[in-house]
């Protein structure tokens, strides 16, 4: 038995000869079930497929023979659950022949198994459907699987099943038509009318996945789901549980507005009622509601069209302007769990997308500069930048990471680069490659995240140089230092112990 395991240990790490694989196949055929179980779980038998030349007919044939021994020894459900990790690694492998080979064996098992044997882990069903060209067709057309799906009648089961197919459709958009033809989402639409807030929130989360591609949005509109949800949003305050439901509703419509900023936000049927709804919640003292409203506006503002659509409502004195001061208040008084959300939302509001010519972005940059000043008021903008910088040096890693993301967003703006130069010590902090060493006590260094700010400053400096604005970019000497710092890389010339440790950690993971 030792000889078999030694052979497996070798072939699971290095390619072998055709004879070695043929000998292994003969050995495996003579193993008992318990011995084969040990070969798979303790000696990484499935790893050998990653080293076999599956493009070669002879090697492919012996690989098929070995796989048949493995797959025929265990019931499909039992094997997929006990060896889920190994199967997922094979299915998601960059070795395309290996991936297709293992998926084909699983598909064969699905097609030839009774319904009671198809309770495979959902991750495996997802990966089969995403990576195999016929995966969705197999799930929907196979009688045993269809029978299994139809047996799931509870609301939570319907939501979970719909979530699986919605995720698959978001990854392989060409599969959506097959799903519609098989009425996959019909039962989910009916759950929308249920009064249970948890069911509503879970349903909204699934429907939001369908918003991420055109056919999904068209389907929801044609089935009346968008109109129904928008009507419910407008009367949501009448629901005693509105504070629980609001974040889910707002997230749904923020996603729709982000995906279709022109169609959705220029439609008076939607824009004004949505803005009025958002404004009505700005009177609350509940920071959770304030964060949800801010995140909604932030998601819409990820695009330049979204920023333009909301510009009039964020003018001084307009209905949404209080959001900026309230967001600033929450930012300064939030808990460690809420603060990262506000910082990331402000990053979306202030970030300048790199999608248009610079001349077309000047009005957008004027807008975001006005918003930054409204957030900072009554203090000057340099004071607000200093506070964000302080947060980027806090001991809480999630807060620090979110603050670094916000600084990177500010660095996309010409006024942001100008502000960086006005805050004493800030550029020196950016240029210093050792500031994150010893700070990240709860994980790897955030120095790579800080370096992204430096890279963005260099990009913004180069992109906006020569354009006339009211902001003064970095002088030539500082710009040259910036470019040299970018050239030196994340860790600069002096590699810190934290950097070496992190790279070793990554190396061990890859290995």
Written overview of the protein:
One of its GO terms (cellular component) is proteasome complex. InterPro entries: ARM-like, ARM-type_fold, PSMD5. Keywords: Proteasome. With 511 residues, the protein is mainly alpha-helical. The protein has 31 helices and no strands. It has helices at residues 2-11, 18-29, 33-41, 57-73, 76-82, 84-91, 96-111, 122-131, 135-141, 143-150, 155-171, 176-181, 186-191, 197-210, 214-222, 225-234, 242-259, 261-265, 271-280, 287-300, 304-311, 322-333, 339-350, 358-376, 381-391, 397-411, 414-422, 426-431, 447-464, 476-488, 497-510. Helix 14 (197-210) runs parallel beside helix 17, helix 24 (358-376) crosses helix 25 and helix 29 packs across helix 30. The longest helix is centred in the C-terminal third of the chain and has 19 residues, at 358-376. It is globular. Mean pLDDT is 85; it is low at 496-500 and 502-511.
